[in-house]
Every structure is written in C-alpha cells, then in structure tokens.
Amino acid sequence: MQNSFSQRRFSAEGRIISDRAFYLAIGGFLLFGFLINALEVIFLADFFAGWNPLVFVIVYFVMALSGCIINLVSRNPALNFVGYCLVVLPLGAVLAIALPAYSMQTVTSAFLVATFLALFMIILALVYPKAFSSVFALLWLALLVALIYQIVAIFSGFGNNVVLDWVLVLVFSGYVGFDVSFARSRPRTMSNAISSACAIYMDLVYVFIKLVEILGRNN
C-alpha cells in the first residue's frame, strides 16, 4: 500500500500535486509576473531608460535566455522560480521603456484585445487540446518565416510591417493555446506549473507588445 501511494504522489519530475493546486499555481505565478511588470512600469521607467542601449540588450538576453534554459532543464521548484523571475524582470524592463511612449487608450485597447485573444485560445486549448499539438511544427515554421522576413525588411526597407505584426500576434496567440494544451498533459508537479506559467507568460507579453505597436501606429 505504501509503495502504491508513493507512486501516486511522485513522478520522475517531482512530487505530484492536485489538479486544482497545479492550475492555481500557474494562475498565481502568471499574476505574480504581471504584478512585477506593472511595478516596473510605474516605478522604474526612468531607471531603465537611463541604461546604455547595448548594455540593456546584453543584460536582457543573458537574463531571459538563462531563465528559459533553467525552466527547460530544472525539476527543482525553487530553481524554476528563479528562472521565471529571470524572464519576468527583463521583459518588464522592456515594457517600462516602451509603454510610456504610447497613450493610455492605446495600452488599454491592446490589453483588452490581448485578453480576448488569450481567453479565446485557452478555451480552444481546453476543448481541442490535440489540435494545438498537431500544429506545433506549423507554429514554429510560421514564427521562423516571420522573423526572417522581419530581418530582411529591417535591412532592405521593404515589407509591410503591419501585416508582419499581425502575423506575429496570431503566431504567439497560437503558442498560448499550445502551451496551455501542453501544460494539461504534463505531470502535476510544482516545477512543471512554474515552467508552464513561464511559457504562457512569455506568449501573453509578446502578444501584448505587438498589439501595442500595431494600435500605437494606427493612432
């Protein structure tokens, strides 16, 4: 009986928690990330704006990539949380620098559209989880093509950036659905809850940033 109980409560990826605790943890860590970002935007915009751009970019990529790698390989919840913070903090710095350049109406509209897209994709992922698993390769291909096109457009001056921005919005919205679907299929451990929250958080922030750019350009 004891062995059977241990097998139910643990997996190769850590201690198993209940479904409710797993999804509440994902939601809680998402709210934590957004709260930290809001505080960065409100109180640290001038601080980040004073950084040397090259230093900022280097620190951003080092922190964000380190956080992503930690959440990919770690099975320790404490280390996963550190990795999550390494992703949240630099993305919040980007928001702190970018958002003051836009009107409150633009930011609010982008937030509402991003929320609608996120809820729509989450519902689709809950109803049709296998559909997102089957289009993962297509999402990767679409993202790769969009990024290559963006690089070419930057250096050649050719390209419709509005179309490209909307393509990226749709791609990252698709990733929201995929990451929600993937989270549902993972063992219910705290480390998986944190790494799932990290993936969904990045999707949502990138959707929001692109929508701010699109709506700000239109305004």
Primary descriptors:
219 residues; mainly alpha; two-stranded antiparallel sheet; 2% strand; disordered N terminus; single chain; 2 strands
Explained architecture:
The protein is mainly alpha-helical. It has one domain. The chain has helices at 2-9, 19-43, 45-49, 53-73, 77-98, 104-127, 129-134, 136-156, 161-185, 190-218; strands spanning 10-11, 14-15. It has a two-stranded antiparallel sheet. The model is unreliable at 1-7 (pLDDT under 50).
Write the layout of secondary structure elements.
Layout lengths: L1 H8 E2 L2 E2 L3 H25 L1 H5 L3 H21 L3 H22 L5 H24 L1 H6 L1 H21 L4 H25 L4 H29 L1
Antiparallel strand pairs: 1-2
As a percent range, the share of strand residues is: under 5%
What is the number of helical segments per DSSP (H or I, 4+ residues)? 10
Tell me roughly what share of residues is in helical segments. Answer: over 70%
- Give a short account of the largest sheet: 2 strands, antiparallel
Give a summary of the structure in a few sentences:
The chain has 219 residues and is mainly alpha-helical. The protein has ten helices and two strands; from the N terminus they run αββααααααααα.
